[in-house]
Every structure is written in structure tokens, then in C-alpha cells.
Amino acid sequence: MRRNPYRIGLAILATIAALPCLGFCAVGALHAQEDPEQAAAWTTIYVGLDLALLALIIWLWTWALRPTPPPSGCPACGYDLSRLRTGSCPECGQPVRP
Predict the structure, then answer these.
(1) How many independent structural domains does the chain possess?
(2) Share of the chain above pLDDT 90, in %
(3) How far, rounded to the nearest angstrom, does the alpha carbon of residue 80 sit from its chain's CA centroid?
(4) Within 13 Å of residue 75, how many CA atoms lie on the same side as its CB?
(5) 22 neighbors 79 (Cβ within 8 angstroms)
(6) Rounded to two decimals, what is the model's pTM?
(7) What is the rounded CA–CA span in Å between residue 18 and residue 56?
(8) Are 53 and 21 in contact (CB under 8 A)?
(9) Is residue 3 within 8 Å of residue 17, measured between CB atoms?
(10) How far apart are CA 9 and CA 64, in angstroms?
């Protein structure tokens, strides 16, 4: 199975766009110095934003690097069904049209 180059390109562009935003923790620390009464709240908000953005980048790369099944592949497992004579995938049992 192949990897889709358009997905990888999209993941690269999104990562480049999001990398400058991964410094939210530092912004939270600076903001906490201005308002010491709510320092913990601001730090928690900015750490949460950092973690959410990092999770989004990891999910995007997981999606981008997922192999795409061949056109004649099983939609469930990607097994090549080009010479299939039955109505189900021999690998996973998914019903398919021969």
C-alpha cells in the first residue's frame, strides 16, 4: 500500500503553521507575572492549549502516514482484491463486490 503524498504535504504545512504556536506555555508564564492572583489559571489554560495543539499535530501525522489501500483493495483491511472470485475478503471477511 502507498502513502498519499497530498496528505503528507498537508501535514507538513499544518506542522509548519502550528510550530510557532507551541510556545503558549511561555506566554502563560509571562501573563501570570502580570496577574499573580490568577497565575495558576492562566498557566493551566496555556498548557492546555499547548497539549491540544500537540495532540492535533500528532493526529494529523497519524492520518497522513496511514497507507491508502489500492483501488482494488478491501476498504476494511486493504487486502488486494483484484483476483477475487468470492463476495467477501479472504483476509478479514468484509463483504465486498467481486
Answers:
(1) 2
(2) 3
(3) 26
(4) 5
(5) no
(6) 0.60
(7) 10
(8) yes
(9) no
(10) 8
2 strand-pairing partners: 68
Residue 6 to residue 78: CA distance in whole angstroms: 19
Same domain, 57 and 92: no
Q: Which domain holds residue 53?
A: 5-65
Angle between helices 39-65 and 5-18 (to 10 degrees): 160
Residue from 79, 61, 71 nearest 13 by CA: 61
Give the Cα separation of 58 and 81 in Å (integer): 31
Residue 70 corresponds to which amino acid? Answer: P
* Whether the predicted pLDDT of 11 surpasses 70: yes
Clarify whether residues 47 and 74 are in a common domain: no
- H-helix segments, the chain: 5-18, 24-34, 39-65
- In this prediction, residue 71 carries a pLDDT of 73
Give residue-wise pLDDT tens across range 32-85. Answer: 777 777 777 877 888 888 888 889 999 999 888 887 766 778 888 878 888 888
